[in-house]
């Protein structure tokens, strides 16, 4: 009789139509696959049931979060090797079940159901967000719930991962070996420079997080800042930092939806890593809201992750793992769509800078921080939540490095009635 590892390997190769590039170690101690390759460890037969009931990315993710699947060896190498079989061909893998006609494959599936234990599907790990349908996406209530799921997992946990800067967006690296704190400071200064911040101006920081951009702008550029977030934990942390910096007279932090801000106009608006939460159906509303909050001549810096465009955009589906465990209801769109909607709202787009490679470097540093503080991270959250963050950040690092997704800073202006932009004649001399 075949051992469990060989059965798993055989079935997966039959389903995917390609040799498995990783080794498999099953719960019975058996191994199969190429020697020396990273090893996919199947710690519990329940992981097999998860894959049988939910083939593809989500089944794998549930097994990983539950601790039933792991990697022995380099995680990045393992994910890179498997990406072509799972993440890049997820639809093919899921659709393969309907197309199976081979009696040997069906026999193998029946054998795996036997190996996997009870026929009923396992309950998802508790870290998975329970969905209430997608009919009311991106209402104020649903957005607050989604943001809370991602950000309200404990400020102490984020300190372990992000480091003292507490900046949860792409850093801006001088060299790959630069300190993370320096790279995050340079990113905040890059944003401030593009916005042309001057003493006495008023800045709106949309999705202000733990207050890092607000503090940098007020302390280094003498502006007054309103920062908004939907996370109560973030707001409390930011207010404490601001008080310690002696900047409470220049920075106000609110738990507020961007649609509820009515006390414009502002000289400048920064939106750093927030627009991914807006959703395609609400994006024009988001752009118009920010346009209405700017003074004529004011600038918007929109820093946002983008996906590659598809030949048929109507077939685009959100990433199942990230939607269930990381950013519920988050949506990525091509940068061209973002630029078009900003222009439709009235903005004149003046500059677009891709800093894709910088996000891969940033995510690898965050993963290293998490791994170096693993016992503390598990204690502060849960084993499953820590595994979610490790998988998500490592997989995203590879996605940026392989040009599956990118990140762009779009600088846009609200021109004066005369049509004057207030921008310098030469590009990227931001003053």
Overview of the molecule:
One of its GO terms (biological process) is methylation. InterPro entries: CFA/CMAS (IPR050723), CMAS (IPR003333), MeTfrase_dom (IPR020803), SAM-dependent_MTases_sf (IPR029063). Residues 157-398 form the Polyketide synthase-like methyltransferase domain. Its EC number is 2.1.1.79. This is Cyclopropane-fatty-acyl-phospholipid synthase. With 431 residues, the chain is α/β, with parallel strands linked by helices. It has 2 domains: 4-116, no CATH class; 140-413, Vaccinia Virus protein VP39 (Rossmann fold). Helices cover 45% and strands 15% of the residues. The chain has 17 helices and 11 strands. The protein has helices spanning 4-16, 46-53, 57-65, 75-83, 90-99, 103-116, 140-151, 155-162, 180-195, 212-221, 232-244, 283-293, 320-326, 335-344, 356-372, 374-380, 383-401, and strands at 23-25, 31-32, 39-42, 69-72, 202-206, 224-229, 251-255, 266-272, 294-307, 348-354, 405-413. The strands form 2 sheets. A 7-stranded mixed sheet has the order 7-6-5-8-9-11-10. The chain has a 4-stranded mixed sheet with strand order 2-1-3-4. Helix 15 (356-372) runs antiparallel to helix 17. The longest helix has 19 residues, at 383-401. Residues 89-100 have low confidence and may be disordered.
